[in-house]
TrEMBL record:
<dbReference type="InterPro" id="IPR017459">
    <property type="entry name" value="Glycosyl_Trfase_fam3_N_dom"/>
</dbReference>
<dbReference type="InterPro" id="IPR017872">
    <property type="entry name" value="Pyrmidine_PPase_CS"/>
</dbReference>
<dbReference type="InterPro" id="IPR000312">
    <property type="entry name" value="Glycosyl_Trfase_fam3"/>
</dbReference>
<dbReference type="GO" id="GO:0006206">
    <property type="term" value="P:pyrimidine nucleobase metabolic process"/>
</dbReference>
<comment type="subunit">
    <text>Homodimer.</text>
</comment>
<dbReference type="GO" id="GO:0004645">
    <property type="term" value="F:1,4-alpha-oligoglucan phosphorylase activity"/>
</dbReference>
<dbReference type="GO" id="GO:0006213">
    <property type="term" value="P:pyrimidine nucleoside metabolic process"/>
</dbReference>
<dbReference type="InterPro" id="IPR018090">
    <property type="entry name" value="Pyrmidine_PPas_bac/euk"/>
</dbReference>
<dbReference type="Pfam" id="PF07831">
    <property type="entry name" value="PYNP_C"/>
</dbReference>
<dbReference type="InterPro" id="IPR035902">
    <property type="entry name" value="Nuc_phospho_transferase"/>
</dbReference>
<protein>
    <submittedName>
        <fullName>Thymidine phosphorylase</fullName>
    </submittedName>
</protein>
<dbReference type="InterPro" id="IPR000053">
    <property type="entry name" value="Thymidine/pyrmidine_PPase"/>
</dbReference>
<dbReference type="InterPro" id="IPR036566">
    <property type="entry name" value="PYNP-like_C_sf"/>
</dbReference>
<dbReference type="GO" id="GO:0009032">
    <property type="term" value="F:thymidine phosphorylase activity"/>
</dbReference>
<feature type="domain" description="Pyrimidine nucleoside phosphorylase C-terminal">
    <location>
        <begin position="336"/>
        <end position="410"/>
    </location>
</feature>
<dbReference type="Pfam" id="PF00591">
    <property type="entry name" value="Glycos_transf_3"/>
</dbReference>
<dbReference type="InterPro" id="IPR036320">
    <property type="entry name" value="Glycosyl_Trfase_fam3_N_dom_sf"/>
</dbReference>
Length: 428
């Protein structure tokens, strides 16, 4: 005999009431078991979308999703700390960050996903490295964490299975963009992965989920509150996603850029954000005395990257896939690049084959966009602005269509001070 009827829980939320802890625990568990039907959960998700959940309800909802599966128990001597990004265009930060923070003395268990839509997925990027394997068992994750200090791999299917089911339902019922549902979805997976601390990179701008700083702040606050309620020290950074991060957007092209950063070079915004996130992670891990900039410069982070890739069957020295076709977009006039829109570049990369429309679609490892100028740079007429990489040249017109109106060239020398990448910080 079930203790509640789904229809009563739906009605309560529809009428703006708070759900009790018992109602939440039951409804999430019963949905996972198939006792609450998809259409009932769809109605409840819409009621939550419209009427919200307060922070206590959201923390309970997260706990119920964690309890729907297994929690990894990481037995490593070092403090564990992870990072999660809400997703952006050119966001390859995990690639240099995980080995850097490991080289600084923490253990980084980073269970990642594949890309869907205009934002890329970390696993798709790493799979451009010949031999590299995303699927690891819980034992392999534990061993690699102890031996290398960093692991980036696919989330095991036993982590928060309720979220997997609910996320697919939200996707087709227009209930994704709800702060309590997004926050509980992200945090259930991250807390189940067993890390002691967590830094969140909440993206703001055209290429992000959250288009305004106000929305991003509200999501960041909800995420940090859930962390606190579950005893996981959590900090959120709000970072700019109005323009692509770095120059490379795609799969193999982003790996190349990440390796440049690990070797002491790379675009300034990628280095800045990698170090900012590393500092917060080290603070939460009790390692604030270690300077990540020094460790990056010493080459130790690059060595850890090579060991991390090797441990998962990859060859860090192998040549990465090259595109069959490169199309160059030239500057139509001379001037200063005042704007380069992240969303447009993300959609162009996706149309070139770097991303997928359905989760079972394959991606082209060599597809993507290289942004040869960044906002604030002066360019001359005819100078290459963007390089479009693809194995399917018939995709180029659709990518160009996405890029139409995506950048402005101005005759002013200073089109306005460029903001730094980090816009705000919210601590628990
Ligand atoms: N990412 C997630 O994992 N869940 C959401 O609901 C949105 C983004």
């Amino acid at each position: 005999m079930e203790p509640f009827a789904a229809v009563d829980v739906i009605r309560a939320k529809r009428d703006g009431e708070r759900l009790s802890a018992e109602q939440i625990e039951w409804v999430v568990d019963a949905y996972t078991r198939g006792v609450v039907a998809e259409e009932q959960m769809a109605a409840l998700a819409m009621a939550i979308f419209l009427n919200g959940m307060d922070s206590a309800e959201t923390a309970r909802w997260t706990g119920a999703m964690i309890d729907s599966g297994e929690r990894l128990s990481l037995h490593v001597a070092r403090p564990t700390v992870d990072k999660h990004s809400t997703g952006g265009v050119g966001d390859k930060i995990t690639l240099p960050l995980a080995p850097l923070v490991a080289a600084c003395g923490a253990a980084v268990p980073q269970l990642s996903g594949r890309g869907l839509g205009h934002t890329g997925g970390t696993l798709d990027k790493l799979e451009s490295i010949p031999g590299w394997r995303a699927e690891l068992s819980a034992e392999e994750i534990g061993r690699q964490l102890a031996e290398v200090g960093a692991v980036v791999c696919a989330a095991t299917p036993t982590l928060a299975p309720a979220d997997r089911k609910l996320y697919a339902l939200r996707d087709v019922t227009s209930t994704v963009e709800s702060v309590p549902l997004i926050a509980s979805s992200i945090m259930s997976k991250k807390i189940a992965e067993g890390s002691g601390a967590l830094v969140l990179d909440v993206k703001v701008g055209s290429g992000a989920f959250m288009k305004t700083i106000r929305q991003a702040r509200s999501l960041a606050r909800a995420l940090v509150d859930i962390g606190a309620a579950h005893g996981v020290a959590t900090t959120a950074l709000l970072t700019d996603m109005s323009t692509p991060l770095g120059s490379a957007v795609g799969n193999a092209v982003e790996v190349v850029e990440a390796v440049e950063v690990l070797k002491g070079g790379g675009p300034a915004d990628v280095v800045e954000l990698t170090l900012a996130l590393a500092r917060e992670m080290l603070t939460l891990a009790g390692l604030s005395h270690v300077d990540p900039a020094e460790v990056l410069a010493s080459g130790e982070a690059y060595e850890t990257w090579c060991r991390m890739i090797h441990a998962q069957g990859g060859d860090p020295d192998a040549e990465l896939p090259k595109p069959a076709h490169v199309h160059v977009v030239e500057a139509p006039e001379s001037g200063v690049l005042a704007r380069l829109d992240a969303y447009a570049v993300g959609v162009a990369a996706w149309r070139l084959g770097a991303g997928r429309a359905r989760k079972e679609d394959p991606v082209q490892l060599a597809a993507g966009v290289r942004c040869l100028a960044k906002p604030g740079d002066r360019v001359e007429r005819g100078q290459p602005l963007l390089e479009l990489h693809t194995d399917t040249p018939e995709a180029v017109p659709a990518a160009l269509d996405a890029l139409s109106g995506s950048y402005d060239l101005t005759q002013r020398h200073n089109p306005g001070a460029a903001e730094g990448t980090v816009l705000d910080l919210i601590r628990g």
